[in-house]
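tool_call predict_complex ligand=NAP
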Amino acid sequence: MIRLNIIGAGRVGKTLGLLWRRAEVANIQDVLCRSDESAQAATNCIGAGTPVTAWSELRPADVHLLAVPDDALPATGEKLAETIDLAGSIVFHTSGWLSSDDLSAARENGAFAASVHPIKGFPEPRSAADSFRGTWCAIEGQSEAVGVLRPAFEAIGAQLVDLETDRKPLYHTATIMACNYVVALAALAQKSLVASGIPDDRAMEMLIPLMRNTVDNLEHLGPVHALTGPVVRGDGTTVAAHLVALSKWDASVAHTYADLATHLIDIAAEQGTSPESLDRVEAALKSSS
Ligand SMILES: NC(=O)c1ccc[n+]([C@@H]2O[C@H](COP(=O)([O-])OP(=O)(O)OC[C@H]3O[C@@H](n4cnc5c(N)ncnc54)[C@H](OP(=O)(O)O)[C@@H]3O)[C@@H](O)[C@H]2O)c1
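tool_result ok
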């Protein structure tokens, strides 16, 4: 079993600790938080580990997971490297856009560095642990670290995909668009429905089946064939009417609608909408800008 220290045990630290404890992949050793209260809460949640608040109490381990907020990661790596001898151990974090290069202090101190980013939201540790199986995780870093972390993640049901270290920021934008931007679009659609006279408490309820069906279509058909609606039909008049209505209500939403429509035009072209039809949509977009 891997002897694991967890430094920063919030949502991700607790979830991974709990999963590895349950799967008997890791022996959870020290769990370092900034307060007694949160260190104790973390070890209670994981069901193992010694709660620690002082860096001087941290013991050497096979693997150190740094699960602190992204902004605190480089400094936390430096602190770890100052505190204990890391020769031959593995240090990794779970940030989406930072990489193993952001653990240079630990590497200089003899550690092998990596990052493993789970493409999943972790709102609450127990439910996140229960639904973790099948989660895609992007992994990059030194081969010695990847060689240990890959089987440790696979043992808790992760699906691993290799990533180039210098591509992490671009990779992370994809996960943010598929998650956070969908939330932004859903919220705009909800507000727009309410502005059109639909009761507030009904609006999201009406949108969810449509959104779920769209995700199902994306899964089964891919984006090119999942696309329906006025752009792929070449209904320029409809697009123009939408932009007039949105501009009267909220000009910034009209801009977002028009910006995204330009990407829909590319998808519609791939689906086979004629250039003449797409010209009508483009003309509607130009006349509104
Ligand atoms: N949450 C997600 O959905 C998710 C998904 C994928 C990846 N990630 C990544 O996972 C990492 C951890 O995220 P999280 O959501 O688990 O964060 P979190 O719930 O906010 O937990 C962060 C932990 O770090 C500690 N901490 C906060 N500020 C610190 C500082 N300045 N110095 C040292 N420790 C500090 C907290 O300390 P105390 O307990 O001591 O207050 C807490 O234990 C991040 O790199 C994030 O990008 C998160």
